[in-house]
Design a protein that fits this description.
The protein is an alpha+beta fold. Helices cover 32% and strands 18% of the residues. The chain has 19 helices and 21 strands. Helix 18 packs antiparallel against helix 19 (522-539). The radius of gyration is 26 Å and the shape is globular.
């Protein structure tokens, strides 16, 4: 039955592709009819070259064994609540959106310099407050409608509409005063004040189609409550836009037959299967039903010794330069009845957490202790700040200062009113490694008189708990970047609106963050980030746990797999991986 279903789907895809090719040929004929006759390049004149943003993908397409086609099948470790841009909040949804939505600029993965994607050129004013972009000609959304400067301006206006559920994005784009479409191909970003990530912010704006998303200005709740309003100009399109639901169990993107780019994506289809159980994901990879498997640390070395598996697999172990970090967030929200309003308690919890031992015991050494939100490989990090070591005596002293002692000799600390130091730690129940981390911490903290009650939850339940502040402590992870802006997570203005869901407030840190964001000169800005890092180190709104190595197994039919300064090029867009014709599976 599965084979019959697949054949039916293949026929449907072929029929649709033929129809769209017919439309595309018609578009080309109309475009050629509007142009003067081509005369070719004059002698000595260079012919048009592939834009730099597409150069790496173009070079891959010139390899002798390159062939378009096949699928790439991923696994999602948790279900998705929504794929609608702006409304979605998790990294998995962002990964999928990256193939459908496009921005004006992208970074070169080796030089880290900005390159034009939708933008052909750009100019930054001397004062840094105005950035003018010139768009490429011939840009189109996946339905064939042209992408113009008006769509760029609309995207900004849509984000800034208070009725649209995009508070996280608004927190960043409030720095922008206005976005003006000067003409069809020219758009200007004007900033109210200097901002160190102005070019990144403007160039990274996801461009939304006004003719598709504009209708939601009249009915914002329909957008805010949607699950699959994913539509863009990228190399892939979402065929189930408006129809997909979170219980579908998978996400499929198909190659956009109207893609405007000079290099078409190699894979015909990208698929993400929701497989929340770690063991089930490995079994699915062994069976060849998914193409990539992110291994758990303790199993990775064993898998490398599995000859049958490694005969068809390639392995990669690396610390991503843009990799994120795991943490425990302590709820300090107003009205939250937790011990964690006191920074001495939060520091004590970090002293009680033997992160080095945890990394060895649970992660088999495939991680490093996290000091702060700043990557130790980034100039944002102050090398003079060392992670706190495991120091139970110092922890007990801090807890005693804060009024927590074992007053009745039962082995559990109590406050002056006799309340036990007992709290729940909320975590995603599907992750085996997280489960082991929680169990390790429960036992370690119990020896110091702190009672932690594990609270395993589903991902959707966890998101609801965060929004409502219904938790004592929670363990999660943030993704990262070359240089990150911590405003949304730690500035007090983002309590209840942005990602400062723990309710952390430090007026001195607020001032430093604001000053750093307004400082364009890198050396001065890094000095300010070091001051901000010191505040976070002292206050410990989170206990920063560790940064993991990525331990990846992938089907060896893939070619052009490269490690870059941005990490593995698996998710590079334009797409750089391909499968030779003889090795294609689908």
């Amino acid at each position: 039955m599965f084979q019959v279903d697949r054949q039916w789907r293949e026929l449907a895809e072929i029929r649709e592709a033929v129809e769209e090719q017919r439309d595309r040929i018609g578009d080309l004929r109309r475009e050629l009819a509007r142009r003067p006759a081509a005369t070719g390049a004059a002698e000595g004149q260079e012919r048009p070259t592939v834009p730099p943003a597409f150069q790496r993908a173009h070079e891959a397409s010139q390899e002798p064994d390159f062939a378009p086609g096949d699928w790439r099948v991923h696994a999602l470790g948790q279900g998705l609540d929504t794929l609608t841009p702006l409304v979605s909040t998790d990294a998995y949804a962002s990964e999928i959106q990256n193939y459908v939505l496009e921005s004006l600029l992208v970074r070169h993965p080796e030089t880290l310099e900005w390159q034009g994607l939708l933008a052909r050129d750009w100019e930054v004013a001397e004062d840094g407050l105005t950035i003018t972009f010139e768009l490429r000609r011939g840009l189109r959304f996946s339905d064939g409608e042209p992408l113009t400067a008006e769509d760029v301006a609309f995207s900004y206006d849509f984000i800034m509409d208070e009725d649209i559920a995009a508070p996280r994005q608004r927190a960043y784009y409030r720095r922008v005063q206005e976005v003006e479409a000067v003409d069809e191909h020219t758009v200007v970003f004007r900033f109210a004040e200097p901002y160190f990530k102005a070019l990144s912010l403007a160039g990274g704006l996801p461009v939304l189609a006004e003719h598709y998303y504009g209708r939601f200005r009249e009915d914002p709740e329909a957008f805010n409550n949607s699950r699959s309003r994913l539509f863009g100009s990228g190399p892939y399109r979402f065929p189930a836009a408006g129809e997909w639901t979170p219980d579908s169990g998978r996400v499929e993107l198909e190659r956009n037959p109207r893609y405007w780019g000079p290099v078409e994506p190699s894979f015909r289809r990208l698929v993400w299967e929701v497989i929340e159980n770690d063991s089930a994901r490995l079994t699915t990879y062994r069976n060849g039903d998914i193409d990539l498997y992110q291994a758990r640390p303790r199993e990775f070395e064993d898998l490398l010794e599995d000859p049958a598996l490694m005969e068809r697999s390639e392995s990669r172990a690396y610390m991503s330069p843009t990799g994120g970090y795991s943490y425990i967030a302590w709820n300090q929200r107003e009205g939250a009845e937790t011990p964690f309003h006191d920074p001495r308690v939060r520091r004590a919890m970090t002293f009680l957490t033997d992160r080095e031992a945890l990394i060895q015991e649970v992660l088999a050494g495939h991680a490093e202790v996290a000091v702060s939100p700043f990557n130790p490989r980034s100039p944002q990090h102050d090398d003079g700040i060392e992670p706190r070591g495991h120091d139970p005596e110092r922890a007990r002293a801090l807890l005693a200062e804060a009024g927590w002692e074992d007053r009745n000799g039962d082995g559990v600390l109590e406050d002056e009113a006799g309340n036990d130091f007992s709290f729940e730690l909320t975590y995603v129940q599907a992750s085996t490694d997280t489960q082991r981390v929680v169990e390790y911490l429960r036992d370690a903290w119990a020896r110091a008189g702190v009672e932690m009650v594990p609270r395993p939850t589903e991902w959707s339940v966890m998101l609801e708990a965060i929004d409502q502040g219904d938790y004592d402590a929670i363990t999660l992870g943030w993704t990262s970047d070359i240089e990150i802006d911590i405003y949304q997570m730690f500035h007090s203005s983002q309590i209840g609106e942005g990602d400062n869901y723990v309710g952390y407030s430090n007026p001195e840190l607020d001032a430093v963050i604001e000053q750093a964001r307004a400082t364009v000169e890198e050396g001065s800005r890094m000095a300010l980030w070091h001051r901000a890092e010191r505040h976070l180190f002292e206050d410990q709104p989170y206990t920063f746990l560790f940064r993991r190595e990525t331990l990846l197994l992938m089907d060896d039919r893939f070619r052009n797999v490269q490690q870059t300064r941005l990490g593995l090029n698996a998710d590079a867009v334009p797409v750089e991986w391909y499968v030779p014709a003889a090795a294609q599976r689908y």
